[in-house]
Amino acid sequence: MSEIASVPGGLNGRDEQRPQRAAAEIGRAARAPRLSRRRPASALASVAAPLVALFLAGCAPAGRAEPCAPPASASASPTSASAGPPADANTDAAGGRLQWRGGPTAILERDGLRLLTDPVLGPRGPAVFVLPRHPSTGVENAPVARYTDPPAEPLGRLDVILLSHNHADHFDAVAKETLPKDVTFVLPPDAVEMARAAGFTRLTPLDWDAETVIPTRSGRLRILAVPANHSHDAALDATLGKGNGYVLRWEGAAPYSVYWTGDAVFTEPMRAVAARFAPIDLWLPHLGAVGVDGARGLRTMDAEEAVAAAALLRARHVIPIHHTTFGHYREPVAAFVQRAGTKGLPAHVHVPTDGAWMSLPR
């Protein structure tokens, strides 16, 4: 498996934001002081410190609305993950694999199925989509930059598209135009009209606590929709719309569970997911601390919330996504790695390299 950091330990999901911040900016963020006061575990320090430096090295001065573009290797590990071979039955039989394609977009392969999450497929640029209101600055109709191109490798065959919610930074115009229209599309009820207007024909809307079952090569996959509260502010959460996280459970000879949060902050509904499904084999949280420096607070988890949630879920492995790629992300993934070590999180943390394949960890 390709991984940036494995963090062992001993502790028994509108608008959005961006990681590369100047040190002074991070110091002003609500939770950042708690991150910086604690000394990381010695085993983690050699990984976390260089990674933090990579993220902060070229960033804009405090007060700038959009941080600068990240260094070329900002999402890579000290030992970069390498691209895997093309998908085939042997790779899948070995336990599955994952490819992070930037932001909220990833491919999950297991037991003959190939799933794509929140497709954002447009190229890098200074204004790849527009948010109705910027979560940090409050500016209306705010353009947001993408710092890295999606991987050059084609998406290939798709069996399922999973959509957490209908925002431009989770389902962009390129995806609407280019994705196959007859693929099974699992999505929140609020997104059905948009997907149908874009030409998609095999829609499976799931409200919270509803599920669909899809046959696999050797068993079946249960896809359960769970709450993804976009904000701790109830009024803002309602304005941003009702989104989904998903618990994916492969049933058969080799059962496996994945919880993909979508754009969610750590709330009582997420605690209920933990109470119901812990331990989770693999947790895919959306990080980036979107909105941490805005007037109305977090829109996705910061490092502190994510570590607390991972502990409650008793996640065996964590692959953090939704960081680094876009200009509205505010906290580097290194902050999560550092805090996981500081708190002695027992989960193994695998920071993905954009475009590289990783075996699904067991």
Describe what this molecule looks like in 3D.
The protein is α/β, with parallel strands linked by helices and 362 residues long. The protein has helices at residues 23-28, 32-37, 42-56, 89-93, 173-178, 192-197, 234-240, 268-277, 303-313, 333-342, and strands at residues 97-100, 106-110, 113-117, 125-133, 140-146, 160-162, 184-187, 203-205, 211-215, 220-228, 243-251, 256-260, 282-284, 317-318, 348-349, 357-359. The strands form 3 sheets. Strands 8-7-6-3-2-1-16 form a 7-stranded mixed sheet. The chain has a 7-stranded mixed sheet with strand order 9-10-11-12-13-14-15. Helix 3 packs antiparallel against helix 10 and helix 9 (303-313) crosses helix 10. The protein starts with 22 loop residues before the first helix and ends with a strand.
**General form:** globular
Beta-strand content bin: 15-25%
Oligomerization status of the protein chains: single chain
Major β-sheet strand ordering: 8-7-6-3-2-1-16
DSSP summary, beta strand count? 16
In short:
The protein has 362 residues and is α/β, with parallel strands linked by helices. The chain is 23% helix and 22% strand.
Structural features:
disordered N terminus; 10 helices; alpha/beta; 16 strands
Layout of secondary structure:
Elements: H1 23-28, H2 32-37, H3 42-56, H4 89-93, E1 97-100, E2 106-110, E3 113-117, E4 125-133, E5 140-146, E6 160-162, H5 173-178, E7 184-187, H6 192-197, E8 203-205, E9 211-215, E10 220-228, H7 234-240, E11 243-251, E12 256-260, H8 268-277, E13 282-284, H9 303-313, E14 317-318, H10 333-342, E15 348-349, E16 357-359
Parallel strand pairs: 3-6, 6-7, 7-8, 12-13, 13-14, 14-15
Antiparallel strand pairs: 1-2, 1-16, 2-3, 4-5, 9-10, 10-11, 11-12
